[in-house]
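Reminder to self: keep the SMILES exactly as supplied, no canonicalising. Ligand is magnesium ion.
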Amino acid sequence: MTGEILTIQVGQCGNQIGQQFWSQLAKEHGIDRNGHAQTTEQQPTFREDNTTPFFKDNDNDRYTPRAVMLDLEPKVINDVFNNFQGLFDPRNAWVSQEKYGAGNSWAKGYDEGRKNQDQILNIIDKELESTDNFEGFQLLHSVAGGTGSGLGSNLLETLQERYPKSFLTTYSVFPSNESEVVVQPYNTILTLRRLAEESDASVVFDNNAISNLSTRVFRKTNVDYSDSNQLIAAVMSSVTNSIRFPSYMYSSLQSIFSTLVPTPELHFLTSSFTPFSSDYVAHNRDYRQNTAYDVILELIDNTSSFTSQTEKNPIYYNMFSTLIGPIDRNDITRGISKIQHRLQFAPWSTTSIHVNIGRRSPYLSNKNGKEYINGMMLGNTSGIIPLLNNACDTFDKIFSKRAFLNAFREVDIFDKDDLEFTDSRSVVQNVIDEYIAAEEKEYLDDVLIEEENMAGNLDPYNQVDADGDNVLT
Ligand SMILES: Nc1nc2c(ncn2[C@@H]2O[C@H](COP(=O)(O)OP(=O)(O)OP(=O)(O)O)[C@@H](O)[C@H]2O)c(=O)[nH]1
Ligand SMILES: [Mg+2]
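Structure tokens returned for the bound complex:
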């Protein structure tokens, strides 16, 4: 049975991304902004979708997102409630009494998380009481501000300790290089440590790449967060398409992310999406009719990526793609064989490409009569190394001078010495080293001494599984 997933959104970025995510999900499940099931003539008479993983069904036509909203200042959460009156459960929102935010200080955010842990856990526990088969959490936040990063870090530690069996994923936004907040490199490294140690899988979004992507998609230079967050929501909704529109495979977070995470250390994932048709984005751009083959090739193009691709020839460890629309399976097979030639895959990774044929929501309208194929791809690749290196380099620059540390000294995990900083830096270095080690063909040799230990040693030419449903190579 597919389990329930609790989304926890923290700080400005987390809550703003969450707003777009729920807006997309509501649209895909025929739920209006007040939480009521839409009743229109086009509406199917019975539900083909499964709303339970993400929504509570209070009485027959009233849906409430399984979402917890946390912030240290009220503005963003108030905006969400104003935009969606009646959709979210007000008891699931928590704003600190002080209402001043963490002022970009990870330390302040972490400390507030610790001080208010009981209240926050109370909300989470109550929410879990309304589940029958709880599967896991997804945390939405930025790694660079104070609340999403600091309170988010504290929460990750608490969740892992308190619910060790639940699957813990994050969608983590990294700052753009133009950011002017001087302590961001500290916040980023301290948060990355928690992502490395506590999370089972973290999908990484890079605001540098996202602003370029948004400029292209919306064809304007001044894109704002409400634009770019729609792009993020397109990725997030597609990741769980097979959970919400049930299929034989990939019907749980675990089954999706286990295809992508070969060892616990390698769990930082990149993403890409194309094309941003009106199913996902509020604009009227007309894309040309496409095939699954076109989409697969576009997905591996840098221009579709949510992380800046500066590594020339990254090695791919795993890929998971969801394609939605009128798909010809032969096009998938052709697409896969093309990317196997174009990209370099780690030889130790035997089942490296997973394609899920998703379902388009029957609630989405068909305005211009065209049926596009939309594609989303998550990748586990050495292409993540430059982003991690950049976080380390900017950290090293200010930390070597012990610059801007005052705000951190006030909090007791920092007061004695610099151990928290040096430890976090070395945890992130270990992640980088692991990604570098995984580029070598001997990476899993100690684990795979015996041929029979190999997971999924499939015939690469027999790409469609028994149901003809999913493609594995
Ligand atoms: N993509 C995206 N990035 C955002 C958004 N809001 C903020 N950011 C980025 O997040 C970082 C700042 O973090 P915020 O989420 O604003 O901070 P916070 O968690 O609310 O913490 P404090 O305000 O310091 O208490 C910067 O790198 C911003 O570029 C958003 O809606 N979308
Ligand atoms: Mg804030």
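Points to follow up:
The CA atoms of residues 261 and 267 lie 5 Å apart.
Confidence is low (pLDDT under 50) at residues 452-473.
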